[in-house]
User: What shape does this take?
Amino acid sequence: MANDTPYPHLFSPVRVGGRTLRNRVCLPATVTNYARANRITERWKNFLIERVRGGAAMVVSEVIAVDPEAIAQATTIIGFDDSNNADFSNTAERVEAAGGWLIGQLWHPGRQQLWHPTKAPTGVSDNPDPYSWTVPHVMDTDEIRTVIDAYIAVAARLHRCGLAGVELHGAHGYLINQFLSPWSNTRDDEWGGDVEGRSRFAREIASGIRAACGDGFIVGLKMSGDELVEGGIDVEEAARLTQRMVGTGTFDYFAYGQGNFSLSLESHVPDMYFQPGHYIDIPKRLRAAADGIPVMALGRIGTPELAERIVRDGYGDLVGMTRAHIADAAFAEKARTGRADEIRPCVFDNFCWGEIHQGKPLVEFHNPHLGTVGEADLRLEPAATSRRVVVVGAGPAGLEAAWVAAARGHDVTLFGASKHPGGALRLEALLPGRDGMGRVTEHQMRMAQRHGVDIRLGQRATADQLRALAPDAVVLATGADLRPPEGLIVESGAVIAARDYVASNGQAFSGRRGTAVLYDHDHTAAAYGVADRLAQDFKRLILITPRPQIAQGVNYCSAIGIYRRLYGAGVEIVPAAVPIRLANGCLDLRNPYSETARTIENVDLLVYVTPRQVTDDLGPALDGIEVQRVGDCRSPRNLMAAIHGGHAVALEL
Assistant: This one.
């Protein structure tokens, strides 16, 4: 056990198959969409290599299609021909040189057609795909054996390319999971029925890989520990499946996920509304069935303290952390060397996950250097000349600009009108379940203090103050305000912006606790945090939106949770509705599609979340001074635009 680290169990070596891992920290597979035309790119390689340079012991690639029918989109890596061989070899060599092992994740979606619903899917049974409702072609035995051979052939190719092993993706409703689960596998032949039949597909793949690649090649299985659907795999069934897999003698580790592509998908990537390590009891309960074969714990693990506890207290032998590694490539090394306070925190808002499932490249809102060379030991280029820089606004854009500029050697003063940093993000962190957003501000403040920023909170800067400081450059990050609902006539009644309601800690109009209406012209996760708060404060909440449905700005995984919470709290959702008149407790609505009208009576309070308008009183008064605008002050957008924009401006100063 390592004694020179605050986390000795986490950083102790472990044997996995024929390899020794230097510690227990692993990067599980995640889609990056960094490939182009199904070919590996340098950014794809960098993402994996930098996590090993940052201390991870084993990294699992994103999905590798085992045959042409498994190609979901142009960013899906293919492994069934030689086109990526050189890049597989190069990545494996560089990962090993950095002290880690590269595992390739073998994948076939089966019936699941999230990205490509027009493509003819193949499935285990004729049950429709739960998301696209596509009915698959049912594979016959010859087709099944062809796919088994495809898995084995790709594994053999990766073995020749120097990878340390492969992981069979048998979770989250993909093809292997479709065989394993009684929820999706209704066959009555040798490939279905009991555990023996349902596990045959995975067992034959693994046995074939072992025969082709030898005993030193790692063969892992990612499977569902609990699908969280009636009639699916639960922990008891997962234990029976695990025992049968152990009996083959071919598997070197098991990684347990949860949920599948149904409404239980919310649990697949548990967001900030779940407790840290929400599902770690699952691998702990399955370790006995694994009979000494290493088990990987997964799901909302974001701190070295939790990771240490998982290993120390027997929840798992390996700790898989995807989103924590997306936020900070050097998570492991910072933890190992006692610099946990420097780790850029993941707040589990699932923004990154939402981007990749729109087919976009993987991004992280407060890691602008994701997937670049040197990310794990990032060194900002020193400024050629130190300048006097004043930043106005202590929200996410201003804080980012301030600390990055200071880190590059500039003399930076930061003004914040509020006594508290964070801007609109601070208010979002006050909402139920969204307190994790405050960790972004805490990290930025630590960085600003570490790099010597002169922080002046509770001071609304004036043009005269700024001129008196004789700055070489001013960065304006003064944000934006919610604009009143367009066209709304208020003859009488109470109307308030959501931010003002939250800032009042729910005390605004505290004498009125009957019916509240939330006008959602925003569709971000924060808007539904406001709804959660109003549902607590009022007897009745009606949520109206001009669009045909809500949560269109939220990734579809977290959107499941939004619907679950709102319906669970009894919130009434009225789509296709625009407020046009409030008088005497009656709110008149107009349907923008049909032009029909309706009225909500006995309204005590109308709260609105709407498109923002820029707040910039200082810019016109700073003629003759170099002025840069960042964040909402430049153009009201999302948190990533604010932080990345602040970072980029600071690199240009």
In short: The longest strand covers residues 218-226. Residues 484-610 form a domain with the FAD/NAD(P)-binding domain fold (CATH 3.50.50.60). The chain has three domains: 14-371, 388-481+614-652, 484-610.
